């Protein structure tokens, strides 16, 4: 499926680029919206108020997902909303089910910051399963900063000028969208 993402700007990209065409899991074209709309008129158009950039890499993902508990919103009165570590984590009596649910909530928070790649490896089975199912890529080292270009994987985030992530896509799939 072709999707044309129109934004305020694409960075890094050629001067004047304000749109990206995604074909499946890959970027098909980057350039001015008017030119891409003329060339890919059958594409579904998504308009975003922000800047489209490559997704973030999270080097501390193992610590965030395997050494912290992300409370369920229903536990907020008792545990708060921030991740728990150290003695507070030890008191919880974590089970595999609880680790998996915590990892899923942590992954949603990472997607909400524009994260598309994580450092690994993950050793806890429930966390590893949650990461695998999320679609976020696990890589050995930070990917090099490269311009968004045709044939590249469609892994990107869209940020407002104030720095708030409004959408995160991995291989062309929109995995996070701020409401």
Provide structural commentary.
The protein has 179 residues and is an alpha/beta fold. The chain has 2 domains: 2-55 and 145-177, Urease, subunit C, domain 1; 60-139, no CATH class. The chain is built from 6 helices and 12 strands. It has helices spanning 33-39, 61-66, 76-79, 86-90, 96-111, 125-134, and strands spanning 2-6, 9-10, 19-23, 26-31, 44-47, 51-54, 56-58, 115-119, 137-139, 156-159, 165-170, 173-177. The strands form 3 sheets. A 5-stranded mixed beta sheet has the order 2-6-10-11-12, with no helix packed on it. A 4-stranded mixed beta sheet has the order 4-3-1-5. Strands 7-8-9 form a 3-stranded parallel beta sheet, with no helix packed on it. Helix 5 (96-111) runs parallel beside helix 6 (125-134). The two termini are 23 Å apart.
How are the elements arranged and paired?
Layout (H helix, E strand, L loop, with lengths): L1 E5 L2 E2 L8 E5 L2 E6 L1 H7 L4 E4 L3 E4 L1 E3 L2 H6 L9 H4 L6 H5 L5 H16 L3 E5 L5 H10 L2 E3 L16 E4 L5 E6 L2 E5 L2
Parallel strand pairs: 1-5, 2-6, 7-8, 8-9
Antiparallel strand pairs: 1-3, 3-4, 6-10, 10-11, 11-12
Helix pairs in contact: 5-6
């Amino acid at each position: 499926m072709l999707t044309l993402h129109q934004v305020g700007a694409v960075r890094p990209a050629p001067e004047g680029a304000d749109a990206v065409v995604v074909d499946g899991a890959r970027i098909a074209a980057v350039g001015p919206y008017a030119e891409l709309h003329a060339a890919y008129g059958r594409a579904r158009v998504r308009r975003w108020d922000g800047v489209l950039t490559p997704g973030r890499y999270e080097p501390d993902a193992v610590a965030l997902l395997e050494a912290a508990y992300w409370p369920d919103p229903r536990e907020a009165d008792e545990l708060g909303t921030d991740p728990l570590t150290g003695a507070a984590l030890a008191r919880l009596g974590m089970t595999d089910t609880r680790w998996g649910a915590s990892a899923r909530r942590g992954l949603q928070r990472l997607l909400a910051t524009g994260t598309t790649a994580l450092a690994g490896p993950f050793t806890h089975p429930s966390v590893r399963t949650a990461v695998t199912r999320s679609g976020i890529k696990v890589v050995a080292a930070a990917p090099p900063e490269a311009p968004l270009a045709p044939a590249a994987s469609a892994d990107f985030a869209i940020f407002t000028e104030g720095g708030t992530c409004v959408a995160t896509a991995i291989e062309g799939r929109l995995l996070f969208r701020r409401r």
